[in-house]
Write a sequence for this structure.
DNA sequence: GAATCATATGCACGCTTGTTCATATGATTA
DNA sequence: TAATCATATGAACAAGCGTGCATATGATTC
C-alpha cells in the first residue's frame, strides 16, 4: 500500500514524493543524529574534542588549552560524559579525559576540511 | 620560542601541552566548523537536508515530507540559503530547492551510520 | 585536623533558536 | 481586477543553552 496522501496538495509527482519519503529515516535516528551534531555546534566543545583527540588531558590543562574557565569546561565535560563520547579516569585530585569515540574525530576532521575548502561562508 | 605559559599552572608536561596546542586550529575555522554543525543540530533541518539530497523539492512538498509547517520550513530554508548550502530555483509560484553542498550529504550519511552503530546514547 | 588544590555541581542570567501567527509579496487564474 | 496560491518575512514567545559565580566534594599537603 502506498503512502496515504489524503487531501494534501502536492506538486511534485506522487512517485517522487514517495521515493523521497522512503529515504527518510526513523524519527529516533534523526533525533540522535541531530543531538550528536549539537555536541559539535559549540566552538568550546569543538576545541575540547580536538584537544582530547590528541592527548589525554586533565580539566585544568584542557581549560587552559581551549581558553575557557575550569567551570565551563567541567560543565561541558559532563555533557560529553553523559553522551558517552569521552573516557574518564581519576588519578588523585585530577580527572583525566580522553576521546572515547574515534568516529567523532573522523567526522570532525572531515568537516574541518570541508570548511577549509571554503564553504562555511557566514 | 615556545608558547608563553607565564604563571599558569599546568599538570601535564609542557611539551605535551605544546604539542596539543600546535594541533589547535585558528579561531575562525573553529567558529565556522561549529556553525556548520549547528545547521545539522536540529531534527527538522536534518530531515530537510536528507530530503533535498534525494530530490529537488518545492517548499510545500518539503514541508509535507518533513512534517513541519510551510512557514517553519521557509524560515529554515533561508538559513540554509544564507549559508550557501542549498540551491534555489524559481518557477512560477514555486521555489525549488536542492542540496548544493555535496560534502554535507557525505558528512551526514557518515554520522547517521555512526549513530546507527549505537553510540548516540541519550 | 586545617588549609589547599582539582574538579564537580546547582542556580541564575543573558542570549540564541525554532516555531507560530499574521501579514506581505509576487505570480497565476478566474 | 479580484481572488487564490506558493512562498517569504517580521514580531513575539517559549524553550534550551553556555557561562559565571558560589559552593560542595574529595583528595593531598602542611
Amino acid at each position: 500500500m502506498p503512502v496515504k496522501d489524503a487531501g494534501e496538495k502536492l506538486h511534485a509527482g506522487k512517485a517522487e514524493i514517495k521515493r523521497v519519503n522512503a529515504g527518510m529515516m526513523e524519527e529516533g535516528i534523526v533525533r540522535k543524529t541531530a543531538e550528536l551534531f549539537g555536541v559539535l555546534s559549540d566552538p568550546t566543545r569543538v576545541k575540547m574534542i580536538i584537544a582530547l583527540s590528541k592527548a589525554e588531558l586533565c580539566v585544568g590543562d584542557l581549560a587552559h588549552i581551549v581558553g575557557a574557565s575550569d567551570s565551563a569546561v567541567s560543565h561541558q565535560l559532563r555533557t560529553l560524559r553523559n553522551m558517552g563520547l569521552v573516557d574518564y579516569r581519576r588519578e588523585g585530585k585530577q580527572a583525566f579525559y580522553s576521546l572515547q569515540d574515534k568516529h567523532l574525530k573522523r567526522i570532525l576532521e572531515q568537516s574541518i576540511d570541508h570548511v577549509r575548502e571554503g564553504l562555511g561562508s557566514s
